[in-house]
Each structure stands twice: as C-alpha cells, then as structure tokens.
Design brief:
Two copies of one chain form a homodimer. Chain A is α+β, with helices and mostly antiparallel strands. Chain A contains eleven helices and 30 strands. The longest helix of chain A is centred in the first third of the chain and has 15 residues. The first copy, chain A, is globular and about 70 Å long. At the A-B interface, strand 17, strand 18, strand 19, strand 21 and strand 22 of A face strand 17, strand 18, strand 19, strand 21 and strand 22 of B.
C-alpha cells in the first residue's frame, strides 16, 4: 500500500508556534506510553509503521517545512510542492510523483491522510480497508469516517446510506449536526483512497504534462482549491469505512493542550498554585510567571506572546492574521537560525541572528546586494571562505563580509555564530545571491 | 523647606518591570491633565514643584538608579547610597549630606517623603504643615496620615489622640483595621519631618563620623532596618497632620493599572473585544495577542513575561523571588544597553547586547580579563580608542577587542552598537577594569 501524508498549512490558529517552519506538528508536546515526549508527526509515523509495516510512505509538503520534516519522518520520501497552493494541487503532484518517479501504474491505489491527525492505532489499520474500497472496484473514491461523539459545529460530515456516501455537510449548526448524526452521518477524517490515473485525469483538465518535472513547472496553473471541493463532492461513486475511536483535531490551543499530560513545556516557567486548568509553553529563554488565572493558555516564542482563554482559542485566526512579521526562527538544510533583534530604518537597519550550522554542513556560497555582514564565531570550529580564500575559524573569530563579497562557512564541529547585518531599509531573507562555481 | 524623596526598592511586586534600573517609578504609565504620559517620578516632581516652589529637593537613591533618575528629576540633587540597605541608613545619610555638604545647622528640619506616592496636590502642600509640627517645637517627629477610606489589611496605621500620635499598627486584620479606624486611626503615609541633629544622633549610636565621606565609608555598619522600627516607634513625641484625599500604593499590578487610562502600553499589542478589565504592557518588540480573558494583567519585558489575575497580583513577590537572572536592561551615565541573548557554557559562553551611547558621551576606557568583545556599529558616528589609538567609526565598522585590550568609544552623533562577548563560564558586568590615564 502507498500512503501520502499531507503536511500542509501554516495554521495561524496556533500562533505564535505555527509559522511555516516551526509549526505544531513538530513540537514535542505529546507523551507516549514510555513517558517520552514526541511530536504529532513522530506519533503518526510510529502508529503508521506499526499498523502498516509494509506500506510505502510519502510526505507531501513544501520547502519551508522540508528541513523540519526530515528530522521527524526518518526514511519516508518527501514530495515538495514548488509553492503552497491547496490540497487539490498537492494530491495531483503526489499522483504524478508516484507515476513518473516511482513508475507505478495508473491503476494503482494510494491513500491520502493528514499528518496532524490525533487518533488510535485502529485508525491507521483501517487505511487498508479504505484502500480496498477502491482496489476492489466497489467505488471510485474511498473515505474514512469517524463515529461522532458529540454534535460538533466545527467538523465536516459524511452523509451515508450503509457504506455508500450520499453527500457532505460542512460545519453545520449544532442542531443540524444532531439531526444528521441521527441519520448515521460520520465525521469526515480527510482520508482519501484514489487511483493514480483518476487523479491525474483531473489535473489534466488544467495542465498538459507528461513528466513530473513538467507538472512542477506548470504547478501555478493548478487551481488553489481543496481536493474535496474540486473532486470529491462531484463524484458519485464513493464508499466509506467507519472508524470508532478517538479522533481529534488538535488545531486549536484548547484541543491541543487537552492532550498534553503536563501543564507546561519549556524552561523557566513558574505557575502559581492558584492557577486552574492553565497551560504554559515557553520557547523563549526568559522566565515566564503565570499567577492566579483559570482556563488559559500562555505561549511565548520568538514570533510573539499569546495569552488566550481556552474557550476563545478557536477564534484566534483573525487576530493572528493582523500580524505581518518576518519569521524569527527557521530550520534550514544546514541547521537553523533565529533572529535576536531586527531594527528597521530607512538610513541604517540592523538585524542580529544566532546561526547554528551542523557538523559537516555548509552555508551555500553567496553574496548580498543590500547589506554587509559580520560573523562572530561563539562556539565550535569551522572553515570560512571569502572571495575564494579559505581560513580556519574558532570561538572569537570575526569574519567581515562587505556588500557584494562572496562568502560561505563550513562547520567542522557544530558551529554557532552571531551574525550582524547592517544596511538600509528592509533587511530580507530574499537578498541572497547563491554562487555556483 | 528641605525635602528628601526616597527612591528605593527594586519592588519585586511589579516584576518583570521592577528590576533596579528599570523600575515602576520611571515608566510613563500615568496620564496628566494635558493627556501626556508621565512617570510616577515626573508626576511627583511636578506636584511638588507646584505645591512647594521654594523647597530644596533632594533624592536619596543608589547608583543603579542614578542614570534613570537624572532623566526624570531635572535639577534635584541626588544623594547616593554606596550600597542598598534600608530606610534608616538612607535617611541618616541624607541628614549627613545636608549637614556636611549643604552646611545646614543641626536644628534645621527636613521632610522625608516616598518618591512613588500617588496622591493629590493637597498632599504636597501639607508637607509644610508636617515640617511645622517639628520646627514649632510641638513634637520631635512630624508625620502625615491619610484618612482611611476602607479597612485595608495591607497598610500601616497611625493611632492618635487628637494630633498626638499614640502608637502604630502594621498590617492589621480587616476587623482590627475597622476597629482602629473608628477610633480615628490614619493610614501612615511614610512621611517624616525631622531635625538633622536628631537623625545624626541616632546614626552616631552605630558609627563615629565627622564628615559625609566618613559616613559613606562606614555605611555598611549601619543596621539594615527601616526608619520606622529603628527610630519612630521608639519616639514618644510625635505629631500627625491629617490628609484627606486620594492616596494609593501603586505597588501592585492591580493598583497600578487602575490608574492607567488606556488598557495598553507599548507597541504591537492586539487585545480582542472579548477581553474584560485586562491591561497589557509590552516592552518587547515582538507582538502580543491577548484574547478572551478577564481581570488580568499581561506584562512582557526583556527580564520575563508575566500573566497574572488582578486580585492575585499582590502575591507575586514569592514567585519573582525564585528568579535569579542578570539584568537585561540598564540605563547608564552614557546611555543604555539591553541584552539580546545570553548563552552560558563552561567552554564557550556568548552574550549579545545592543548598546546606545548618547551624542557627546563616552564609555569609560576599560578592559576585561574574562572575555573578548566585538563591536559592530549599526547607527551613528563616533571615535573608538584601542590601546591608545583613535579611529573614526560609522555604520558597518567592526571593532575587535581582545581579552585585556584597553578600549573605549565616544559618540559624535547618537551611536548604536551590537556587542558580542565571547568567553567561558559566566560573563558578568563586574568584569570591567576601568583605566584612568
């Protein structure tokens, strides 16, 4: 069986932890049976490998998440979108990858599953049954539906007659939800079993392509639309498999903290005894004191500070949308960086970063048109290159990089640098010219 | 008349804004009649100059607050304790200053008043009446008492018979407070009128001194004790003046935010409409979102993040006492600095600061034994000196300072630097050897 995990959105609903590179699925918030903390991605990979030991596993994502994913998914293969669009383009790209890169036949079936699902092991076992709905010829699309445990107004519902899908209802009122549940409706888990050829046919309605590279090239011609709207809701032949067990959307601070076993994550957190049902996540290195409050979540990160009542935490998105700010932390192919301070000014801007380069890795040979840089090595040993000249560096070494000067650095042991950028106006990540010599 | 304002404690009760250099009395939180924001110190100085235009005003404080005070008190004279002890030593030092430095007679009376009082203009007019209690010969000590408006269990009470003080009750139960209020007790405002000689006599019980310098030298021999316990509660001849009007201790987040007119201070603050009676102060440059909470105070600073219910905000001190952390922001004679990051390690520690030097000022000529430093100029023009050699600097200039190398920098225009310290183990402010040539 082939399983494609969708690792998508930036999820403003979990701001300030949900920027592209540092999003909820990578945080070690959940405790496994051995009492160790694991991320949502690690949990899903573990459950999947146990339920489907022989499956080929692929992860559909984008470049911003690639480095973080690599750390969590082990040997699974990444299918990277050239730009973020929506689930229809992402699933089409996955189908093209399986056909052109993995040389599978168009009749082969694959199962798409969200990477941020929180469910029991049984859920992952049932993926075989969902596949069989299609591979047996019974239906064109197979879905997984969870037996509802309350009339949620936030989920999508699958209407059914027996195992045949009769329609969909998206985010109904509670009364409406109650009514359709009585008629046997299921929570739609966002799992699809599909034939490769069926998906490629739909993509072919927008783009002519005969290779993976050619679909990548024309990716921006695919509509920004969900697979549900673009394909599933127009299809008549759909079968559903019923799952009975825990199924949760950990997409709000309220639901996510419900699954945390402790009430805090991070260092230097002091919570007074007078606090009730309150969770604190501190990603900063300054202390956080939380005193005498109830039913709240407090989250700090380099992107911002959030204090929210748990009930109201599902209404965060409109507030987070008002924030337009450069990312303050990113994982990269060679390590990671975080911004310590950014002061913008038309005459003289400055940006200070801590950069960590993993042993044996290098920052690409590059230059900048709009800024000079200074690197101060604060830990580890490495080799820097400036305009072709190499030199060894160690703690205390200072590397001055003038505007336009080509430079790179390689880490012998794990290397940490403080970088000071000086320029005028905006200092942006995009001001990088990579040099290939 | 001579007035000594006591600007003392670090006030953990207002953590994270209450470290030594950056404490509540310097924050522009209060709005004056012209709609401009002013600090508690500015408010008191304005009220005092208006009520007592001819008074000599002195401020008793310590070196950590000196730079911040200079910005807020205009021409008032500073009396600096060599180390922080308590109010008895501080008032003794003030008396010695008035005698030996200002050449006042021992019979002269001075009035001591807290600098962080929040009261009406009338309060400051009455300081003349408090002085007259002593200068008329009526009593040895004069006090100011506020007419209580509720039976607070947090204040000290003056028991009285007419205008004669009959005793004191410190932080009684509410029932006890109710009882003493019915007998005419007053809230003790912490104002004392005293003869210089009377105070010096008490100090003489601990230390032999015949000059200001000699008391400074033996300052550590004075007991760490409050003036109330050491002197006032043992004195029989005390008169009280009654003040009727607003008198508040703005020493907790609850009482302080009551006097803020807006509900936020700082940039990048988003408060949802669903929040009730909630105040947010953001001293960081990252955004803060506060959503769906009631009766809370949220405060961020480079020292930490606080989220507290308003009622419980008077119980913060024990929590804040658990935090032992270097100051992250300080005002200095030449400007200010703030720590962007401090990573401590036995082999290689690093500390990154943004330093601001005011135009025309200089950092003293100094060297360090335990660290090397790199300065990157990010704004302004100046002159740096390394081992006696001067050189002009401007944005982008890099100055490398090896361990033990003498260095200083002067600002021509306002200068901003990023400083990177590299060393091993703790990197502390105290590792400065100042060079006088």
């Amino acid at each position: 069986m082939n399983i494609v995990l969708l690792s998508g959105g930036s999820g403003k609903r979990l701001w300030p932890l949900s920027n592209d590179a540092h999003s909820k699925q990578f945080l070690k918030l959940l405790e496994n049976d051995q009492g160790e903390y694991e991320s949502m991605v690690e949990r899903v990979m573990r459950q999947l490998l146990s339920a489907q030991p022989d499956a080929g596993i692929f992860v559909s994502s984008n470049a911003a998440q690639a480095a973080a994913l690599h750390r969590h998914i082990g040997e699974a293969e990444l299918i990277l979108e050239p730009e973020r669009r929506d689930t229809f383009p992402a699933i089409a790209l996955a189908a093209a990858y399986l056909k052109y890169r993995k040389h599978m036949g168009e009749d082969e079936v694959f199962v798409v599953c969200p990477i941020d699902v929180y469910a029991d092991g049984r859920y992952f076992e049932l993926l075989s049954d969902v596949e069989r709905v299609v591979s047996s010829g019974e239906s064109i699309i197979g879905l997984l539906g969870a037996l509802p445990v309350y009339p949620s107004a936030k989920y999508g519902y699958i209407l059914r007659q027996g195992n045949r899908v009769a329609g969909f209802v998206e985010k109904p009122s509670e009364a409406e939800a109650e009514r359709v549940i009585q008629e046997g409706a299921l929570w739609n888990c966002g799992v699809f079993a599909l034939r490769i050829g069926y998906v490629l046919e739909h993509a072919g309605g927008y783009v002519d392509f005969d290779s993976y590279a050619s679909l990548i090239e024309q990716y921006s011609k695919l509509p920004v639309n969900s697979f549900d709207y673009e394909v599933v809701e127009k299809e008549k032949s759909i079968g559903a498999v019923i799952y009975e067990g825990v199924w949760k959307d950990l997409g709000t601070w309220n639901t996510l903290t419900e699954e945390m076993r402790g009430n805090s994550m991070g260092d230097r957190i002091l919570i007074s005894d007078s606090c009730v049902n309150t969770h604190v996540l501190n990603m900063l290195d300054i202390p956080v004191i939380v005193n005498d409050i109830c039913d709240c979540v407090v989250v700090t990160s380099h992107d911002g500070v959030l204090v929210t009542g748990k009930q109201g935490s599902s209404h965060l998105k409109p507030l987070a949308d008002q924030i337009d700010f450069r990312p303050m932390y990113e994982q990269r192919r060679w390590g990671s960086y975080r911004v310590l301070e950014y002061v913008r000014d038309d005459l003289s801007s400055s940006l200070v970063k801590r950069i960590r380069v993993e042993a044996g890795k290098s920052i690409s040979y590059q230059y900048h048109n709009g800024r000079s840089e200074v690197w101060v090595v604060v830990r580890g040993d490495g080799v820097r290159t400036i305009d072709g000249v190499e030199s060894a560096v160690s703690p205390g070494s200072v590397i001055q990089i003038k505007m336009g000067q080509k430079h790179s650095i390689s880490a012998v042991t794990e290397l940490e640098l403080i970088e000071v950028q000086v320029g005028a106006g905006d200092l942006v990540e995009e001001d990088i010219v990579r040099v290939y010599e």
